[in-house]
DNA sequence: CTGAAAGCGCTTACAG
DNA sequence: CTGAAAGCGCTTACAG
């Protein structure tokens, strides 16, 4: 049933040339007369010839394929993948996606395994892994080479020695801006509704929250700033809703930094259930700029994350590593604060 | 720098056997003594031998790879892909994702091209294409073979002769349940906030809305049921918010069927801007069951869509086509109505 | 139960 | 500028 596909030998026979000439005509590599080249291309086209990529790959030892490791949970990963795929395709690579689950060690093992498989010219992981799985490019000054293999492995995010996460997406420094801005606007009591401990981004946001509030409290100008603590600990908006019950009633007005928009939506709902008004009694910030957040009542103050750009940047780093080029310069910032109704009227806050 | 990976010849030499024996030991195909097999496996393991898949593929003429075509827009696609990938991996295939954009004709051409490339054992498209791009399996009674190629092509959704979409995800029949239930609850004036014309799912929801309202109006028991028309026409929640302005003020109470949750959120906000209360003055339904919809005030009545199952089902159909098996039986329903606050108190509506 | 040999479809020095 | 030949790493009849 599977009728044989035409091969370069067929093209050669029909065009009255050798297989080598067909190869030269198609790849544009050797030297070849324009007329010959044209005739070969015509014949190839006419019989619907498509080079067998497996054969080509075996001969050239280049698979033209990249592996991208993604996690199971976040919807945002698709936008990351779209950005990465855009850059990979433009560079002539096909991207294969592998989904991993499990602990850091398991993810790290999976990444090493894919790199060792020899099937790929490079591996990009969008989920954090231990540094030992990564190769460092020739000009990558800031990390010691850990993977001695031959396949470059690059990560969007990695763990440093204290198991903190480094990477664009895990950068939580905008939480500091939230806190400072709200302190300047007069808020004194702060709470954080955190995401799960095992998420690097969740830990980063929590840590920045705690240090920013501590710094404000240490500031002689605002000695009355106080942290009401870290609540929650999952990505469930319903948990966030329940967490509002733990905020003391006499703490109003209170400012809540939620680890993402779903949690922020839960906080709004939890506040309503206690008869609190947002933003009059409680202000809240989210993260991710989910589309619906702009339409909620009140609309959510949040952090817009340029996922496609993060994906593109990560893929650019992988391509550079494959080509032995220096690590490309960082692109623009991928985080942007979006102030909306959930933190009060715009004129009460800086833009 | 790229130090050569060990080959089956290396394993053979080290184990003191022939290359053929190594192949038999690894694939478990020929007949081989248990002791020999074990020794070969040990050697292979010890030198970290991994078969070169390109070479194997060239010899067996089986690539072990499937192409999945996905669109650029919907976040939900990731969940579809996850389901499809689960089934593909379990069957021993690697899945490669290709993103397409453009018109139906362009998408159709792209799918045909991928099928003709000979790189894949099968192609699954999650975006609608014309039937001419599809192959029909040997036992696929309900469609004539259009693609004469050798690579099976299966679609999650396809267009019929009237360019209507057929497929699980495009099934909009639950819109009918929304309308009928709201008519039974006493609502008489209905509006639809539609998605973009070029989306099959948007067209299907609009069509079912129109026919369901027409049917209710034709029912002697409810002759006063009336359609206020189709508003909107994009996936932008902000457009939906503005569309509320087109609803006549004297139409209250009104029931709005929105094509998805983002649009429904826009409708809620648009209603608030006109001083209308949801659900007292206006009830609204969405689609997709986005996580945040359960936390909004009011929470959104919606349709939960089992995207992973839709992906699994589509991949099962592709695998059956590849194996020449009959089309697998349909799984359970992938749509489930979720009644929430945006259509009024639960006790006023059936569950 | 095991090995020698052919061949999958390409590309690439090397001659001419 | 073009062709003959080798070889990428596997698998698979076919002998033995």
UniProtKB/TrEMBL annotation, chains A, B:
Keywords of the record, alphabetical order, are: DNA-binding, Transcription, Transcription regulation
Q: Would the keyword Transcription regulation be found if you checked this record's keyword annotation?
A: yes
Question: Does this UniProt record's set of keywords contain Transcription?
Answer: yes
SUPFAM superfamilies in the cross-refs: lambda repressor-like DNA-binding domains, Periplasmic binding protein-like I
Q: Where are the transmembrane segments?
A: none
**What is the superkingdom listed in this entry's lineage?**
Bacteria
Domain HTH lacI-type residues, every copy:
6-60
Annotated protein name in UniProt = LacI family transcriptional regulator
Q: Which organism is it from?
A: Isoptericola peretonis
